[in-house]
Amino acid sequence: MKMQRLLSLLRQAADNYQMIDQDDHIAVGISGGKDSLTLLCGLHSLQRFYPKHFSLSAITVDLGLGNLDLEPIKALCHSLDIPYHVISTDIGTVLFDIRKESNPCSLCAKMRKGALNQKALELGCNKIAYAHHRDDLIETALMSLIYEGRFHAFSPYTHLDRTGLTVIRPMLYVSEADVKGFRNRYQLPVCKNPCPMDGHTRREYVKNLIRTLDRENPGVKDRLFSAVMNGHLEGWPDICP
User: At the topology level of CATH, where does 3-229 sit?
Assistant: First the structure.
């Protein structure tokens, strides 16, 4: 995927759901993976011509699991002139050594979000951009059906009353295949995920399930995405005219 296509999809999502307002200070959560780095590069380029001025800060929550080389990401942020902040935590120790969680993903996500939100507020940010893409959306919807018995998925934007922050998801229309293409074309400095649960989660199971369904029934991904977008899900905003 070329930058031009990424910018088109980011702009479409931002405009449809009014994700970006004048003088927003947006914190971009950087895991080190291809998704968050693609979002960072895309938003940086979008700044140059978007009609509403906004600024960016990049934040990584280090879980303390070790083997996380962030130097290439620091270099990328420096080249883009985006302030980069690393939050050192002991989340990994709490989850795997102290609590010995067998299914730590939900608690881990909650703790990471808490650390990210706190740092964003300290930096004066009013919004946080997550790199959830189109495939994440349909995976979340199917996981909700399978494990919760309801049809639900994350919203394009969510206002957090407790903190006053607003979470936005500008990559809503970007497929994972496009992200992989963007990573390869622009040689993004992706960091290997040190989490021992990587590749062994419910989401990974559902991802593989959708891949199988789409192979055996071409177009399943597109139909799942349409079902979510047209499903009038609770908490979802309407598309702006």
Answer: Rossmann fold (3.40.50)
